[in-house]
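the two lines:
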Amino acid sequence: MSNNILLYAASENNSDIFYATGFWAPDPFVCIIADGSTTILLNQLEYGRGKREANVDDVVLLDQLIYQMKVKTAPNIFEIVLYYLKSRKISEVLVPQYFPVFFADYLRQKKICVKVSDGQILPQRIRKKPDEIKKITEAVRITEEAITEVIRILEDSKVVGDEIIYQREPLTSEFFREVMSLYFTKRNYFPSKPIVAGGEQACDPHQIGSGKLRPHRSIVLDVFPRSMSSFYWGDVSRTVVKGKPSKALLQLFEAVKDAQEYGCTLVKAHADGRDIHSKIIKFFEKRGFKTGKKNGIPVGFIHGTGHGLGLDIHEYPRIGSSGNALTENMVVTVEPGLYYPGIGGARIEDDVVVRKSRCENLVKLHKRFIID
Amino acid sequence: MSNNILLYAASENNSDIFYATGFWAPDPFVCIIADGSTTILLNQLEYGRGKREANVDDVVLLDQLIYQMKVKTAPNIFEIVLYYLKSRKISEVLVPQYFPVFFADYLRQKKICVKVSDGQILPQRIRKKPDEIKKITEAVRITEEAITEVIRILEDSKVVGDEIIYQREPLTSEFFREVMSLYFTKRNYFPSKPIVAGGEQACDPHQIGSGKLRPHRSIVLDVFPRSMSSFYWGDVSRTVVKGKPSKALLQLFEAVKDAQEYGCTLVKAHADGRDIHSKIIKFFEKRGFKTGKKNGIPVGFIHGTGHGLGLDIHEYPRIGSSGNALTENMVVTVEPGLYYPGIGGARIEDDVVVRKSRCENLVKLHKRFIID
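prediction for all of em together
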């Protein structure tokens, strides 16, 4: 028996329903994949656009169903879906794990068997098709260009005391964030708040960074715009320094760079995400960089090695302490990092395609640390 | 008995958990509101930032719970939450309607009673506090300024044949979208794809618009940026024309403008959203603008009159065919529109605060139609 899949979400913030329908909508709508055919139910407001834009087999107007239901008071969306499922003699549906409990409870109460997917609801999303890889590559190209713009500004700037001066003003995280955000906006990408974290801020991987950037300290640039037309993401990180880094910081950066290149050699079909991650941890340990706690604060390699990339910025698979097996045509990030308050933080991240016996790196940008 | 609330979501795309915690995070985390106190469970990566930034009573480190659980294999988040609930002797939780069915099924199987909220999980979000109204007002101000910028460009442009020329180039939807997006990005607002829909495109309220804008035809500007610091939205629409509109279009616009002003007089505490909406429909009918279908395409006033505005762009209450009672300090949009292919579309939208016996309009921008 093939599973009948039921989705209910807004494609603006749910990539499964966008993937299944190719229809971008700001409000939740219903998608049913049954008997090999995909149907969406749309209200009057979206129906015309859905007919034109959605890549589905059938677009059903909710008002038409309401008319057929012959009810006195306006039914809600759950009642309409129940009616529709019954009219198609569908008594069992498979839903994603995030499916709303309220909707599931209602259908179950009405004797529809609601099974919850034990993994990805659309496993085909995991392996990228050539046109998807092309779209991700386009997003990666834009990401690289924005980082290149930041590096160019750093090249044109000067260390003066404990500031980095560009066009007579001290450089800040906010300035670089604006430079990149404007770059993305002009190219029809969502800017999504790139990380520009320097000095001690760079030691916290989720800190987006604020204030003046200091010379001689590492600056982590983690940049992840999303296309407003294809809706695929790029996700690239580089770490740079203006001035003269401490010896400890230089060693830290070199270890990250080497670990990242080593990580790329490990990514191939049939490799295991958890295994890759533990190899990177060991690699760091051999170089003298232990992961653990110092004064109650986590230090070392304190995040995962990578994650799937596509219509979501974080998607299946994971390369980390909980990891998945890699298969051909997955697109994943490879992004080891090291974080030690007092010394600094560094992270280098590429986006790669998993191939049979190697990975194909979509990122061409250099990994130069010291920007003169 | 007070309800113990359980939330599990990423505050980046869920406003309930952001409202409850004040903590902005890209990945889902757990929030428990029990016995009058709010607790969040965070992983190592977010713990430090959570301690500093979250406006909650307690931040619990997941690793600490895992350590206490004394299990051999790493538990998943559902198992950790179950352990935590049991440790606090919580056997019943109230969850929002969108709570993931997978999580609910797991807890129920483990004898936790999971009740689903029959309305808003955090009803206090509905009535805005003074500081929230201030934040919305700031977002509204930025929205008005961006629309003003578009109107300024239209003023400086010239009708040449069937094009509107500005600095030797024909004006397009894309150009105006870029102008506004850059404006928002520079001011630390998410640009979120403003609608710039002209001519026939303006007849479809969800059409964002593309290509050259034509003279003598209406152009709908529906603009809704979100602050990257407060995370509140503005949402303002204006309709403009460059050149000489047809008599039918002029009448249509005047009806929308009058209906919008009439709508504002109806918005006050204890008014009913459904009642307001049907009054607007009747108002339009009296002016000769019927809502219905023409050649299978919906025409007339084909969307709701308004919606709540806050941390979500569309939130409780609704002013429409399914509407809610209004209470003091709600912030709602008032946005009637008319859409007739062949003539054009128009929509005017203000954001207003519901007060005792009137509404307070947060939007100061003029509603001029013809831009000379």
